[in-house]
Design a protein that fits this description.
The protein has about 400 residues and is α/β, with parallel strands linked by helices. It folds into four domains: about 130 residues, 3-Layer(aba) Sandwich (Rossmann fold); about 40 residues, no CATH class; about 100 residues, no CATH class; about 100 residues, Trna Endonuclease, Chain: A, domain 1, CATH 3.40.1350. Helix content is about 45%, strand content about 20%. The strands form three sheets. It has a six-stranded mixed β-sheet with strand order 8-9-10-11-13-12, with helices on both faces. The longest helix is centred in the middle third of the chain and has 23 residues. It is globular.
Length: about 400
Amino acid sequence: MPIKRYLFDDLITHLPKKEISLIVGPRQAGKTTLMLQLQDYLNRKGEKTVFLSLDFERDLPHFMTQSALLDRVRLEFGKSKGYVFLDEIQRKENAGLFLKGIYDMQTPYKFVISGSGSVELKEKVHESLAGRKRMFELKTISLKEFINFKTDYKYEDRLNKYFQVTKAEGMNLLMEYLNFGGYPRVILEETLDEKLKIIDEIYRSYIEKDISYLLKVERIDAFGHLIRLLAGQTGNMINFNELSSTLGISVQTLKNYVAYAEKTFIIKRLTPYFRNLRKEISKSPVMYFNDIGMRNFAVRHFGRYTILSELGFVFQNLVYHLLSEKAQYDGSIIHFWRTKDKAEVDFVVNKGDEVLPVEVKCRELKGKETGRSLRGFINRYNPAEAWVVNISFYDEEKIGKTRVRFIPFYEL
Protein backbone atom coordinates (compact mmCIF):
# COMPACT_ATOMS: atom_id res chain seq x y z
CA MET A 1 0.00 0.00 0.00
CA PRO A 2 1.47 3.40 -0.95
CA ILE A 3 1.83 6.11 1.67
CA LYS A 4 -0.98 8.61 1.19
CA ARG A 5 0.25 12.19 0.90
CA TYR A 6 -2.25 14.86 1.90
CA LEU A 7 -0.70 17.36 -0.51
CA PHE A 8 -2.21 15.21 -3.27
CA ASP A 9 -5.69 16.67 -2.71
CA ASP A 10 -4.34 20.24 -2.82
CA LEU A 11 -2.66 19.50 -6.14
CA ILE A 12 -5.83 17.94 -7.56
CA THR A 13 -7.70 21.14 -6.67
CA HIS A 14 -5.07 23.22 -8.49
CA LEU A 15 -5.01 21.15 -11.69
CA PRO A 16 -7.76 23.20 -13.42
CA LYS A 17 -5.77 26.41 -12.85
CA LYS A 18 -3.60 27.75 -15.67
CA GLU A 19 -0.77 28.51 -13.23
CA ILE A 20 2.16 26.12 -13.11
CA SER A 21 1.90 23.73 -10.16
CA LEU A 22 5.45 23.76 -8.76
CA ILE A 23 6.23 21.01 -6.25
CA VAL A 24 9.34 21.68 -4.18
CA GLY A 25 10.89 19.98 -1.20
CA PRO A 26 13.89 18.07 0.09
CA ARG A 27 15.61 15.39 -1.92
CA GLN A 28 13.93 11.97 -1.54
CA ALA A 29 10.73 13.38 0.03
CA GLY A 30 8.59 11.63 -2.59
CA LYS A 31 8.01 14.32 -5.22
CA THR A 32 8.46 11.99 -8.21
CA THR A 33 6.14 9.39 -6.67
CA LEU A 34 3.52 12.06 -6.03
CA MET A 35 3.73 13.29 -9.64
CA LEU A 36 3.34 9.74 -10.96
CA GLN A 37 0.27 9.31 -8.75
CA LEU A 38 -1.16 12.54 -10.19
CA GLN A 39 -0.44 11.32 -13.71
CA ASP A 40 -2.15 8.00 -12.96
CA TYR A 41 -5.18 9.87 -11.56
CA LEU A 42 -5.46 11.90 -14.76
CA ASN A 43 -4.91 8.90 -17.03
CA ARG A 44 -7.75 7.05 -15.31
CA LYS A 45 -9.99 10.04 -16.03
CA GLY A 46 -9.11 9.81 -19.72
CA GLU A 47 -6.91 12.92 -19.76
CA LYS A 48 -3.79 13.18 -21.91
CA THR A 49 -0.49 13.31 -20.04
CA VAL A 50 3.24 13.18 -20.67
CA PHE A 51 6.01 12.72 -18.10
CA LEU A 52 9.56 13.95 -18.78
CA SER A 53 12.47 13.97 -16.37
CA LEU A 54 15.88 15.57 -16.35
CA ASP A 55 17.01 12.42 -14.54
CA PHE A 56 16.39 10.38 -17.73
CA GLU A 57 19.09 10.59 -20.39
CA ARG A 58 16.55 9.89 -23.12
CA ASP A 59 14.56 12.99 -22.14
CA LEU A 60 17.48 15.45 -21.98
CA PRO A 61 17.31 16.50 -25.68
CA HIS A 62 13.76 17.73 -25.10
CA PHE A 63 15.04 20.25 -22.53
CA MET A 64 17.68 21.80 -24.81
CA THR A 65 15.36 24.60 -25.95
CA GLN A 66 11.81 25.75 -25.32
CA SER A 67 10.82 24.79 -28.88
CA ALA A 68 12.31 21.30 -28.45
CA LEU A 69 10.17 20.74 -25.35
CA LEU A 70 7.03 22.03 -27.01
CA ASP A 71 7.68 19.88 -30.10
CA ARG A 72 7.81 16.84 -27.80
CA VAL A 73 4.57 17.85 -26.08
CA ARG A 74 2.77 18.56 -29.37
CA LEU A 75 3.74 15.08 -30.53
CA GLU A 76 1.58 13.74 -27.70
CA PHE A 77 -1.27 16.24 -27.58
CA GLY A 78 -1.30 18.18 -30.85
CA LYS A 79 -3.04 21.46 -30.08
CA SER A 80 -5.50 19.96 -27.61
CA LYS A 81 -5.39 20.22 -23.83
CA GLY A 82 -2.94 18.04 -21.92
CA TYR A 83 -0.95 17.78 -18.69
CA VAL A 84 2.84 18.02 -18.82
CA PHE A 85 4.86 16.64 -15.90
CA LEU A 86 8.48 17.85 -15.70
CA ASP A 87 10.57 16.19 -12.98
CA GLU A 88 13.87 17.34 -11.42
CA ILE A 89 13.71 20.79 -13.04
CA GLN A 90 16.54 22.06 -10.80
CA ARG A 91 18.94 20.27 -13.14
CA LYS A 92 18.03 22.66 -15.97
CA GLU A 93 20.26 25.71 -16.16
CA ASN A 94 18.26 28.96 -16.00
CA ALA A 95 15.15 26.90 -15.29
CA GLY A 96 13.13 29.94 -14.24
CA LEU A 97 13.57 31.83 -17.52
CA PHE A 98 13.09 28.59 -19.48
CA LEU A 99 9.71 27.96 -17.82
CA LYS A 100 8.64 31.61 -17.94
CA GLY A 101 9.11 31.67 -21.71
CA ILE A 102 7.03 28.54 -22.19
CA TYR A 103 4.26 29.78 -19.90
CA ASP A 104 4.09 33.13 -21.70
CA MET A 105 3.51 31.38 -25.03
CA GLN A 106 -0.07 30.73 -23.84
CA THR A 107 -0.12 27.04 -24.78
CA PRO A 108 -3.17 24.89 -23.97
CA TYR A 109 -1.02 22.73 -21.69
CA LYS A 110 -1.04 22.55 -17.91
CA PHE A 111 2.46 22.13 -16.41
CA VAL A 112 3.13 20.26 -13.17
CA ILE A 113 6.79 20.60 -12.23
CA SER A 114 8.97 19.30 -9.42
CA GLY A 115 12.42 20.10 -8.12
CA SER A 116 14.59 19.37 -5.12
CA GLY A 117 15.70 22.05 -2.74
CA SER A 118 18.42 23.94 -4.52
CA VAL A 119 18.95 27.66 -4.09
CA GLU A 120 18.51 28.01 -7.85
CA LEU A 121 15.03 26.56 -7.56
CA LYS A 122 13.88 28.50 -4.52
CA GLU A 123 15.24 31.89 -5.60
CA LYS A 124 15.65 32.17 -9.37
CA VAL A 125 12.71 29.99 -10.40
CA HIS A 126 10.51 31.58 -7.76
CA GLU A 127 11.43 35.06 -8.97
CA SER A 128 11.11 34.31 -12.70
CA LEU A 129 7.70 32.70 -12.31
CA ALA A 130 6.15 35.40 -10.13
CA GLY A 131 2.41 35.41 -10.86
CA ARG A 132 2.73 32.31 -13.05
CA LYS A 133 2.94 29.50 -10.52
CA ARG A 134 1.73 28.24 -7.20
CA MET A 135 4.35 26.59 -5.05
CA PHE A 136 3.52 23.41 -3.12
CA GLU A 137 6.07 22.25 -0.57
CA LEU A 138 6.20 18.49 -0.12
CA LYS A 139 7.87 17.73 3.18
CA THR A 140 8.93 14.31 4.36
CA ILE A 141 6.15 12.11 5.76
CA SER A 142 4.30 13.83 8.61
CA LEU A 143 3.38 12.07 11.85
CA LYS A 144 -0.26 11.97 10.72
CA GLU A 145 0.66 10.40 7.38
CA PHE A 146 2.97 7.94 9.14
CA ILE A 147 0.42 6.78 11.74
CA ASN A 148 -2.32 6.40 9.14
CA PHE A 149 -0.04 4.35 6.90
CA LYS A 150 1.06 2.13 9.78
CA THR A 151 -2.54 1.49 10.84
CA ASP A 152 -3.78 0.80 7.29
CA TYR A 153 -5.89 3.99 7.31
CA LYS A 154 -8.45 2.38 9.64
CA TYR A 155 -8.53 5.38 12.01
CA GLU A 156 -7.87 8.15 9.51
CA ASP A 157 -10.65 10.41 10.75
CA ARG A 158 -10.17 9.67 14.47
CA LEU A 159 -6.47 9.45 15.27
CA ASN A 160 -6.99 11.11 18.65
CA LYS A 161 -9.29 8.25 19.66
CA TYR A 162 -6.73 5.75 18.41
CA PHE A 163 -4.07 7.19 20.72
CA GLN A 164 -6.47 7.29 23.67
CA VAL A 165 -7.65 3.68 23.29
CA THR A 166 -4.45 1.93 22.15
CA LYS A 167 -1.91 3.75 24.28
CA ALA A 168 0.89 1.16 24.13
CA GLU A 169 0.58 0.63 20.38
CA GLY A 170 0.35 4.35 19.76
CA MET A 171 3.42 5.04 21.89
CA ASN A 172 5.39 2.40 19.99
CA LEU A 173 4.56 4.13 16.71
CA LEU A 174 5.44 7.53 18.20
CA MET A 175 8.82 6.16 19.32
CA GLU A 176 9.42 4.72 15.85
CA TYR A 177 8.70 8.08 14.22
CA LEU A 178 10.83 9.99 16.75
CA ASN A 179 13.71 7.62 15.98
CA PHE A 180 13.54 7.38 12.20
CA GLY A 181 11.63 10.43 10.94
CA GLY A 182 9.68 10.68 7.73
CA TYR A 183 11.74 9.92 4.63
CA PRO A 184 9.50 7.51 2.67
CA ARG A 185 12.26 5.03 1.80
CA VAL A 186 13.36 4.90 5.44
CA ILE A 187 9.79 4.20 6.60
CA LEU A 188 9.32 1.42 4.06
CA GLU A 189 12.49 -0.46 5.07
CA GLU A 190 12.05 -3.08 7.77
CA THR A 191 15.44 -3.37 9.46
CA LEU A 192 17.58 -0.83 11.29
CA ASP A 193 20.55 -1.73 9.11
CA GLU A 194 18.65 -0.97 5.90
CA LYS A 195 17.15 2.21 7.33
CA LEU A 196 20.67 3.36 8.24
CA LYS A 197 21.93 2.68 4.73
CA ILE A 198 19.06 4.66 3.21
CA ILE A 199 19.42 7.72 5.47
CA ASP A 200 23.19 7.67 4.92
CA GLU A 201 22.63 7.62 1.16
CA ILE A 202 20.14 10.50 1.40
CA TYR A 203 22.53 12.55 3.53
CA ARG A 204 25.52 11.93 1.25
CA SER A 205 23.45 12.73 -1.83
CA TYR A 206 22.36 16.00 -0.23
CA ILE A 207 25.92 17.02 0.63
CA GLU A 208 27.46 15.90 -2.65
CA LYS A 209 24.74 17.16 -5.02
CA ASP A 210 22.80 20.03 -3.45
CA ILE A 211 25.66 21.49 -1.44
CA SER A 212 28.85 20.64 -3.31
CA TYR A 213 27.63 20.89 -6.90
CA LEU A 214 24.68 23.25 -6.85
CA LEU A 215 25.84 25.67 -4.17
CA LYS A 216 29.57 25.53 -4.89
CA VAL A 217 30.34 25.42 -1.16
CA GLU A 218 34.12 25.26 -0.81
CA ARG A 219 34.37 23.85 2.71
CA ILE A 220 32.16 20.76 2.46
CA ASP A 221 33.75 19.39 5.63
CA ALA A 222 32.83 22.55 7.55
CA PHE A 223 29.28 22.42 6.20
CA GLY A 224 28.89 18.78 7.30
CA HIS A 225 30.22 19.61 10.77
CA LEU A 226 27.80 22.54 10.95
CA ILE A 227 24.82 20.27 10.31
CA ARG A 228 25.98 17.98 13.11
CA LEU A 229 26.46 20.90 15.51
CA LEU A 230 23.03 22.33 14.69
CA ALA A 231 21.49 18.89 15.22
CA GLY A 232 23.07 18.74 18.66
CA GLN A 233 21.63 22.16 19.52
CA THR A 234 18.07 21.58 18.29
CA GLY A 235 15.73 23.93 20.13
CA ASN A 236 18.59 25.91 21.71
CA MET A 237 19.69 29.40 20.79
CA ILE A 238 22.53 29.53 18.28
CA ASN A 239 25.68 31.53 19.07
CA PHE A 240 27.16 32.37 15.66
CA ASN A 241 30.48 33.59 17.07
CA GLU A 242 30.96 30.39 19.03
CA LEU A 243 30.03 28.19 16.08
CA SER A 244 32.29 30.03 13.65
CA SER A 245 35.22 29.63 16.05
CA THR A 246 34.50 25.90 16.45
CA LEU A 247 34.29 25.36 12.69
CA GLY A 248 37.20 27.62 11.75
CA ILE A 249 35.17 29.75 9.34
CA SER A 250 34.12 33.38 9.40
CA VAL A 251 30.81 34.42 10.93
CA GLN A 252 29.59 35.58 7.51
CA THR A 253 30.47 32.24 5.91
CA LEU A 254 28.71 30.48 8.77
CA LYS A 255 25.57 32.57 8.24
CA ASN A 256 25.71 31.79 4.51
CA TYR A 257 25.93 28.07 5.26
CA VAL A 258 22.97 28.26 7.66
CA ALA A 259 21.01 30.05 4.93
CA TYR A 260 21.95 27.29 2.45
CA ALA A 261 20.78 24.61 4.89
CA GLU A 262 17.47 26.41 5.31
CA LYS A 263 16.92 27.00 1.59
CA THR A 264 17.58 23.34 0.86
CA PHE A 265 14.89 22.23 3.33
CA ILE A 266 17.18 20.74 5.98
CA ILE A 267 16.55 23.17 8.84
CA LYS A 268 14.11 25.87 9.82
CA ARG A 269 15.17 28.99 11.68
CA LEU A 270 12.91 30.46 14.38
CA THR A 271 13.35 34.06 15.43
CA PRO A 272 12.55 35.34 18.91
CA TYR A 273 9.29 36.96 19.92
CA PHE A 274 9.76 40.24 21.74
CA ARG A 275 8.14 43.53 22.59
CA ASN A 276 10.68 44.76 25.12
CA LEU A 277 14.06 44.99 23.39
CA ARG A 278 15.96 45.72 26.59
CA LYS A 279 14.74 42.67 28.51
CA GLU A 280 14.21 40.11 25.78
CA ILE A 281 16.88 38.58 23.57
CA SER A 282 16.31 39.84 20.07
CA LYS A 283 18.96 38.34 17.77
CA SER A 284 19.95 34.72 18.33
CA PRO A 285 17.69 32.22 16.50
CA VAL A 286 16.90 28.60 17.32
CA MET A 287 16.95 25.82 14.73
CA TYR A 288 14.71 22.85 14.11
CA PHE A 289 15.18 20.11 11.54
CA ASN A 290 12.62 19.57 8.80
CA ASP A 291 13.07 15.82 9.24
CA ILE A 292 13.65 14.25 12.64
CA GLY A 293 15.42 11.23 11.17
CA MET A 294 17.96 13.46 9.45
CA ARG A 295 18.54 15.26 12.74
CA ASN A 296 19.07 11.98 14.59
CA PHE A 297 21.43 10.71 11.89
CA ALA A 298 23.50 13.89 12.13
CA VAL A 299 24.05 13.36 15.88
CA ARG A 300 24.60 9.61 15.39
CA HIS A 301 21.51 8.60 17.36
CA PHE A 302 19.44 7.38 14.42
CA GLY A 303 17.27 4.53 15.69
CA ARG A 304 18.99 4.42 19.07
CA TYR A 305 16.48 6.09 21.36
CA THR A 306 14.73 3.59 23.60
CA ILE A 307 12.97 5.66 26.30
CA LEU A 308 10.89 8.81 26.08
CA SER A 309 12.99 10.72 28.60
CA GLU A 310 15.90 10.78 26.12
CA LEU A 311 13.80 12.53 23.50
CA GLY A 312 13.04 15.95 24.97
CA PHE A 313 14.35 18.10 22.12
CA VAL A 314 13.32 15.55 19.49
CA PHE A 315 9.74 15.66 20.78
CA GLN A 316 9.98 19.45 20.82
CA ASN A 317 11.05 19.29 17.16
CA LEU A 318 7.97 17.16 16.45
CA VAL A 319 5.66 19.66 18.17
CA TYR A 320 7.22 22.38 16.00
CA HIS A 321 6.20 20.33 12.93
CA LEU A 322 2.65 19.91 14.23
CA LEU A 323 2.31 23.63 14.95
CA SER A 324 3.75 24.47 11.52
CA GLU A 325 1.14 22.31 9.81
CA LYS A 326 -1.58 24.31 11.54
CA ALA A 327 0.12 27.66 10.95
CA GLN A 328 0.45 27.24 7.19
CA TYR A 329 -3.33 27.48 6.80
CA ASP A 330 -4.00 30.54 8.96
CA GLY A 331 -1.00 32.77 8.26
CA SER A 332 0.48 32.45 11.75
CA ILE A 333 4.20 32.89 12.42
CA ILE A 334 5.99 30.74 14.98
CA HIS A 335 8.60 32.27 17.28
CA PHE A 336 10.20 31.35 20.58
CA TRP A 337 10.60 33.50 23.71
CA ARG A 338 13.69 34.00 25.84
CA THR A 339 14.53 36.76 28.30
CA LYS A 340 17.85 37.89 29.71
CA ASP A 341 16.87 36.51 33.11
CA LYS A 342 16.59 32.98 31.58
CA ALA A 343 12.81 32.71 31.24
CA GLU A 344 11.86 30.74 28.14
CA VAL A 345 8.79 29.53 26.31
CA ASP A 346 9.32 26.94 23.57
CA PHE A 347 6.97 28.44 20.98
CA VAL A 348 4.93 31.60 20.55
CA VAL A 349 2.41 31.40 17.73
CA ASN A 350 1.80 34.93 16.51
CA LYS A 351 -1.26 35.78 14.42
CA GLY A 352 -1.75 39.50 14.07
CA ASP A 353 -2.35 40.93 17.53
CA GLU A 354 -3.01 37.48 19.01
CA VAL A 355 -0.29 35.37 20.60
CA LEU A 356 -0.41 31.79 21.79
CA PRO A 357 2.45 30.59 24.04
CA VAL A 358 3.17 26.87 23.85
CA GLU A 359 5.22 24.95 26.40
CA VAL A 360 6.34 21.40 25.52
CA LYS A 361 6.72 18.60 28.06
CA CYS A 362 7.98 15.24 26.78
CA ARG A 363 6.42 13.12 29.49
CA GLU A 364 3.21 11.76 30.97
CA LEU A 365 1.92 14.57 33.18
CA LYS A 366 0.19 13.47 36.38
CA GLY A 367 -1.46 16.81 36.98
CA LYS A 368 -1.51 20.46 35.94
CA GLU A 369 2.06 21.73 35.66
CA THR A 370 2.58 25.31 34.55
CA GLY A 371 6.21 26.38 34.57
CA ARG A 372 7.56 29.66 35.91
CA SER A 373 8.49 30.86 32.42
CA LEU A 374 5.03 30.25 30.98
CA ARG A 375 3.47 32.02 33.94
CA GLY A 376 5.89 34.89 33.37
CA PHE A 377 4.83 35.17 29.72
CA ILE A 378 1.16 35.07 30.70
CA ASN A 379 1.62 37.79 33.31
CA ARG A 380 3.49 39.97 30.84
CA TYR A 381 1.28 39.59 27.75
CA ASN A 382 -2.11 38.33 29.01
CA PRO A 383 -2.83 36.00 26.08
CA ALA A 384 -6.35 34.64 25.76
CA GLU A 385 -5.01 31.09 25.73
CA ALA A 386 -1.82 29.12 26.45
CA TRP A 387 -0.99 25.48 25.71
CA VAL A 388 1.06 22.87 27.53
CA VAL A 389 1.63 20.12 24.93
CA ASN A 390 2.48 16.77 26.50
CA ILE A 391 2.11 13.03 25.90
CA SER A 392 -1.45 12.26 27.02
CA PHE A 393 -2.76 14.58 29.75
CA TYR A 394 -5.98 16.59 29.19
CA ASP A 395 -7.08 19.40 31.48
CA GLU A 396 -7.21 23.15 31.77
CA GLU A 397 -6.94 25.93 34.31
CA LYS A 398 -7.17 29.70 34.52
CA ILE A 399 -4.23 31.98 35.22
CA GLY A 400 -5.68 35.45 35.47
CA LYS A 401 -7.77 35.80 32.32
CA THR A 402 -5.72 33.26 30.38
CA ARG A 403 -7.13 29.79 29.67
CA VAL A 404 -4.26 27.30 30.02
CA ARG A 405 -4.96 24.07 28.14
CA PHE A 406 -3.04 20.84 28.71
CA ILE A 407 -3.11 19.11 25.32
CA PRO A 408 -1.77 15.71 24.17
CA PHE A 409 0.42 16.05 21.09
CA TYR A 410 -2.00 14.04 18.95
CA GLU A 411 -4.71 16.70 19.41
CA LEU A 412 -2.57 18.99 17.25
